[in-house]
Amino acid sequence: MSRVYKYLLPDVRSELSEWRQRAEAIPDPELRRQALASIATKEFHCQGGSVYALAHLEQRHVLIPLIVAFQTISDYLDNLCDRSTSMDADDFRLLHQSMLDAVDPDAPLHNYYELRDEKEDGGYLHRLVATCRNCIAKLPGYEAAKPQILMLVKLYTDLQVYKHIRPELREPALLKWHSEHQNLAPELKWNEFAAATGSTLGVFMLFLAASHKDLDQTSAEVIRHAYFPHVCGLHIMLDYLIDQDEDRIGGDLNFCNYYDNTEMMLDRISLIVQSARQDVTVLPASSFHRMIIEGLLALYLSDPKVSQQQEIRSVSRKLMKKSPLTRLFFFVNSRWIRKHI
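Predicted structure:
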């Protein structure tokens, strides 16, 4: 936490300040509005992701700009698709091609707005992609990590396409997609698998691993297996858990709504927590990854949205029951950061 206060929060704030200035200069009013909204309302995504940079302080000048730029693309596109002026799957896929291009420096750039009415972003999205590529060029172990990163980003892209198409088409498309990839997480229900693909944590952990020159492909694959599906799934299931009221009002898909009752939801999330803890034991410095898991629970369950939803407040209390001191420590710090930073 001392590194969070000393390095992470100021560095992330500085990076986002620059992206905010660039977003303010976007010519198209709708693109500008969504870019600015994504930075204003989702800063904690960048703060949370940048925790991985604290495990290799000597490389934080590369890792924090990379994580912030990549997460900013994710948040911006999520806003564009959630509040989209179109429901065209091809449009959503082309927009998210930018995330694949960001992690594949050899790929050609695309006109990501070609299939939508709003096109003039003043180079904002291309600049985000270029920043990711420039940072990746400074990661000595990236070639070993690249296949695993591309796999995770491809799954993320698929999810964003299917979850944003017309409401009556979403669930059939997601079920078909899950059936094609069920072997990646046979123990998860389709909604839990979909949630796992929506997390960027596995990518950020692989960025961290790639900052070491001795990373090999076998180690990168072990890391991906340790994070996907359970750590990644926990991340997004918690996100959906606290957003249920918000998503209901906005008509957005929420993967916590596919359980028969609250008790089943609690049991499944608890099982994912246990699996995530077990998965990370194979990694070097496994205590760091256990800390990430406890931090996730603390970060999301300390969110003000929890206290505003009676049912979620009850689930939160049960998940926090008999919490280890690490989680309680992060819970207190998460609340303090929200109020004072």
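Summary: The CA atoms of residues 66 and 132 lie 5 Å apart.
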